[in-house]
Specification:
- The structure holds 3 protein chains of 3 kinds.
- Chain A folds into 2 domains: 202 residues, Rossmann fold (3-Layer(aba) Sandwich); 107 residues, Rossmann fold.
- Helix content of chain A is 36%, strand content 20%.
- In chain A, the strands form 3 sheets. In chain A, strands 2, 3, 4, 5, 6, 7, 8 and 14 form an 8-stranded mixed β-sheet that branches.
- In chain A, α2 packs parallel to α8, α4 runs parallel beside α6 and α12 crosses α15.
- Chain B has one domain: Alpha-Beta Plaits (2-Layer Sandwich).
- A two-stranded antiparallel sheet of chain B has the order 1-4.
- Chain B is elongated and about 60 Å long.
- The two termini of chain B are 33 Å apart.
- Chain C has an 8-stranded mixed β-sheet, sandwiched between helices.
- Helices cover 34% and strands 16% of the residues of chain C.
- The chains are: A alpha/beta, B alpha+beta, C alpha/beta.
- β10 of chain A pairs parallel with β2 of chain C, so a sheet runs across the interface.
């Protein structure tokens, strides 16, 4: 090993990103590639992953692009290792990411839970495909949405975003990193195979145009610092490895100094704070797209590729005189419940998703008391057509998948 | 010839490789001791024993045997092998 | 003990107190367990080698050994079972100036973590891996594991272990480790010196430390207390200053048979970081 490589004199471009190889301008990109570019734009310089259809292109793009900017691409031996390698990177201050699909997402659950518990910022992309199990590796599904909400064991509150286009995949990747850093949490980017593979016009602005966020850092001397003492926003400032704080991070229930305290009392302090940290900071992450909802009496709720069909269904329905609108949660978890309830004219909601009913369960929980909530979907493998969605809007009780 | 003369003094004729006998003062932090007996068993000078009294944790700690305070050679084996950081030696070789 | 001596010990400060989370002592490890000895040896290694305190990072998994993180006063990460090494990988690659030690037990590193071990060794990842081998799963009560000797008893091998254990130095050598050593906690001076040496090196370094587990393995197999288990290893130990790679299969551990300790492997191999630095140079140079 040369002295230069061993020493710290070589600039660390992982911890101190540079943007000297941007791919700015108007491009024709797949959702996967756009997501990768968004991550780079956000300052992500560490990717650990494992090939899996339909997310492989994210890894391939980053295998090419990360060395260009002095970052680190490493193909780990499995998704379990990938998920935890990105946590190891993140505790040094690096912005890190992994990308996978259903089977890999399942493998990542334990270490995703560790990220929640240790409050380590990172981004996990799931490009959903047909499941369960090996399922339909090369075709679309939106069947991991409840897993995004409840994947790891234990009580966690997750944040997830669902892009409906490659452009949005680019923008939401940046937003995902900003949110992860701001709230010291893992953030899920729940794409689907169609958005991941479709190619569309993506405009990438010059570096610096979109603001970037980095995690709150420890500023007091080590004797005064408490590893997990939250600020007023419930987020604890983060000391990085190598800063001299002798931090202690553990997945065990812990006190403000990171010491394991496996008691009822410590649990009642920690776990609700982890939940409230997310629920009380909605303004940081919540994003929503409303289309013709002002006077809508029937609402379509859809995300990802289904929202593209749903938008067309709204137009088709309006041509027929129906007061249809599209409520598109861009942040699906936590679901924008208050925004939904604020649409006072709604008496019927059709949740269109490529599964046998997942986000509809949450919608029914929120709006069931006052609206008829029906599901339109299929078991995976095909995009819902606008006509199918419209049919569910028009029929008294939705349509069977 | 001054050098040659200095080689003939009784002090200068003392063997130059005679080992200095080190000496140490053993300290036991009783609250940490778990009576594992590593230090007692492996001390090369058999300086240590288990005491008769119990600590608050219910262990009988190690201690220097009465009369053996002068025998510790500060090898520090006890200090190195103790899994609980409960014993250490302060060298006071004259 | 006299009252004066008693008073003196109350003010006693161990030389490593400032390097330990002293307020959290005594440790949870059982009386007669050797993990604390190995931890002290590692701390010595860092000190002797002059590794700056803020650069020392210890990663643990789950198990008795991994609880080093609660006692050694360094940046310390207590991760998930078996995933010590990939966490350490991400950490080291992102901040190579840090001195990263993955410190875990035989089950964590070689059962659930086995796949991660072999790949990190294959890549020659720049980390020191310390395996505390007490031949069973101690934390969960003494179950058999991948290093439990054939025929040995444990709570899940009540009729004797039907499996053969890994030979850890052999495995480490075969998968690419550049430095491999095995000691018992009784060889504490040699262990300390090994740590002082290896923390300054690069590449994938592996040290197996055999420790007593008197409450589980030692008791179940009627080896006895912590001291008796140490004496058992002492009697069986054969020190080899160098084992040729062709002989490394002769370092198996079997109940009652001689146990070879020493430094087995010490070689040079390009590390992952060196090679990836060339990748980066190529990628950045080609688009200049």
């Amino acid at each position: 090993m040369t002295a230069a490589q061993a020493s710290t004199e070589v600039p660390n471009l992982i911890l101190n990103p540079v943007w000297d190889r941007p791919r700015t301008g108007t491009q024709f990109l797949s959702g996967d590639h756009a997501c990768a570019e968004g991550a780079l734009y956000a300052g992500c310089r560490f990717f650990a992953g494992y090939p899996i259809t339909p997310a492989t292109e994210i890894a391939e793009r980053l295998a090419e692009r990360l060395p260009e900017v002095g970052g680190q691409y490493i193909q780990m031996e499995d998704e379990i290792a990938s998920m935890i390698a990105i946590l190891g990177a993140s505790v040094t201050g690096a912005k890190s990411m992994t990308a996978t699909s259903g089977p890999g997402f399942s493998l990542m659950m334990e270490n995703l839970g560790l990220a929640y518990m240790m409050e380590v910022p990172t981004v996990v992309v799931d490009v959903q495909r047909g499941g369960p199990s090996t399922g339909l590796p090369t075709t679309v599904g939106q069947q991991d949405m409840m897993q995004a909400r409840f994947g790891p064991h234990g009580d966690f509150t997750s944040i997830s975003f669902s892009p409906q286009s490659p452009q949005e995949a680019f923008n939401l990747a940046i937003h995902a990193f900003n949110v992860a850093e701001r709230l010291r949490t893992p953030v899920l980017l729940m794409m689907d195979e169609v958005v991941g593979h479709m190619h569309e016009r993506v405009v990438i602005p010059p570096p610096g145009e979109i603001p970037l966020v980095s995690r709150p850092r420890a500023t007091v001397p080590p004797e005064e610092y408490h590893t997990y003492r939250p600020g007023p926003d419930l987020v604890p400032p983060m000391a990085l490895a190598g800063e001299g704080y002798s931090v202690l991070f553990t997945g065990l229930t812990h006190d403000e100094d990171g010491r394991p305290v496996t008691t009822y009392a410590a649990q009642q302090v920690l776990v609700p704070r982890l939940r409230d940290k997310i629920l009380k900071n909605r303004d940081v992450y919540e994003r929503l797209d409303l289309y013709k909802t002002e006077d809508a009496t029937t609402l379509i709720i859809a995300y990802g590729i289904s929202a593209r069909s749903a938008r067309r269904a709204v137009d088709l329905g309006r041509e027929k005189g129906l007061a249809l609108g599209l409520f598109r949660p861009i942040s699906v978890w936590p679901f924008p419940a208050e925004k939904l309830r604020s649409l006072k004219n709604v008496t019927k909601i059709v949740v269109a998703e490529i599964n046998l009913g997942q986000v509809v369960l949450e919608v029914r929980r929120i709006a069931g008391p006052y609206a008829e909530v029906v599901h339109v979907g299929n078991a995976g493998g095909q995009v819902l057509s606008p006509e199918t969605i419209l049919g569910a809007c028009m029929s008294p009780r939705g349509t069977k998948p | 010839m001054a050098i040659a003369n200095s080689l003939l003094t009784p002090e200068s004729r003392a063997p130059i490789d005679k080992p200095v006998r080190h000496h140490g003062l053993v300290h036991v932090i009783e609250g940490r001791c778990k009576e594992c007996n590593f230090c007692v068993t492996f001390c090369p000078e058999e300086v240590l024993e288990i005491a008769d009294h119990y600590t608050a944790r219910g262990y009988r700690p190690a201690r220097v045997k009465a009369g053996k305070e002068g025998d510790c050679i500060a090898c520090r084996f006890c200090e190195h092998v103790c899994p609980d950081y409960a014993i250490y030696v302060v060298e006071d070789t004259p | 003990m006299t009252a004066d001596a008693e008073a003196a010990t109350h003010q006693a400060i161990h030389p490593y107190d400032h390097l330990l989370r002293s307020a959290d002592l005594p440790t949870i490890w059982c009386p007669g367990c050797g993990i604390g000895t190995a931890v002290g040896a590692l701390i010595y290694g860092f000190e002797q080698a002059g590794i700056p305190k803020e650069k020392r990072v210890i990663v643990g998994g789950i198990g008795c050994s991994s609880r080093i993180v609660f006692y050694a006063k360094t940046d310390a990460y207590h991760t998930t079972h078996g995933r010590t090494i990939p966490f350490a990988t991400g950490l080291k690659l992102s901040n190579p100036s840090l001195n990263v030690v993955a410190f875990a037990g035989d089950g964590d590193l070689f059962a659930i973590g086995g796949n991660h071990f072999i790949h990190a060794a294959r890549r020659n990842m720049d980390i020191l891996v310390v395996c505390i081998n007490n031949f069973n799963y101690g934390m969960t009560g003494g179950q058999g594991g991948p290093t439990t000797p054939a025929g040995a008893l444990s709570t899940t091998t009540p009729y004797g272990n039907a499996e053969s254990p890994f030979n850890l130095p052999n495995l480490a050598w075969a998968t690419g480790a550049t430095y491999v050593a095995r000691w018992t906690t009784l060889d504490v001076r040699r262990l300390r010196n090994t740590f002082a040496d290896v923390v300054t090196r690069h590449g994938f370094r592996f040290v197996e430390v055999m420790t007593p587990c008197p409450v589980s393995f030692g008791k179940t197999n009627k080896i006895g207390s912590g001291v008796e288990e140490m004496e058992y290893y002492q009697a069986l130990e054969v020190l080899k200053s160098r084992v040729e790679s062709t002989e490394i299969t002769k370092t198996d551990i079997e109940l009652g048979k001689p146990i070879v300790v020493g430094t087995f492997v010490d070689r040079e191999r390009e590390t992952f970081r060196e090679r990836y630095a060339r990748v980066v140079a190529k990628a950045r140079g080609s688009k200049a």
